[in-house]
Amino acid sequence: MRHTISVLVNNQTGVLSRVSNLFSARGYNIDSLVVGITDNPKVSRMTIVVRGDDRIIDQVEKQLNKLVDVIKVVDLTNEDFIARTWP
């Protein structure tokens, strides 16, 4: 099942690398990754789409929350959100 995860992080050098390494070290493939700053230039939002069952996603969320620069992790899969899909 595809999960869309929103991650608020401190806008620091190397955060994107640490987050993507977290996925690759555990053998999880990222289907989509988008990063942009928020209204606060010190904070960025990462939107990550990854496939996996609930156990895998729960583990990913726990590991993301352990990273120092991560502020908040939310699984948007069961929430209302707007997504654009590519054909």
Describe the overall structure.
The chain has helices at residues 15-25, 54-66, and strands at residues 2-10, 30-37, 43-51, 70-75. Helix content is 28%, strand content 37%. The chain is an alpha+beta fold. A hairpin with a 5-residue loop joins strand 2 and strand 3.
Quick synopsis:
By secondary structure, the chain is of the alpha+beta class.
What labels would you give this structure?
single chain, 87 residues, alpha+beta, 4-stranded antiparallel β-sheet, 2 helices, 4 strands, 37% strand, globular
Biggest sheet strand line-up: 2-3-1-4
Give the termini separation. Answer: 18 Å
**Portion of residues in helices?**
25-40%
Summed up, the helix count is 2
List strands and helices in order, with pairings.
Layout: E1 2-10, H1 15-25, E2 30-37, E3 43-51, H2 54-66, E4 70-75
